[in-house]
Amino acid sequence: MQFNCIAIGKASAVIAQNGELIIGFAAILFGDACPTSLAKYDDLKAAAYIGDVVVHSDYSGKGLAHSYSKVQLNSHQLKK
Prior knowledge:
Number of strands: 3
Strand content: 25-35%
Strand order of the largest sheet: 1-2-3
Oligomer: single chain
Order of helices and strands: HEEEH
Distance between the termini: 22 Å
Radius of gyration: 13 Å
């Protein structure tokens, strides 16, 4: 579902690299692509949601997954 949302422009893929090596991936969903359970907290039109996050095992525990929350905010601001 998340890859489909990326393909149709309702989500963004964020890739983290170290040189040529892909070390992480996150799917950031926007608006109505966010889980409907979040609607009780905010208008989904103004929401962004971090979907799947994958981090290479050699980079686990180094804050990479946490940094996706900053990317989420920046990506959502760009989508407005």
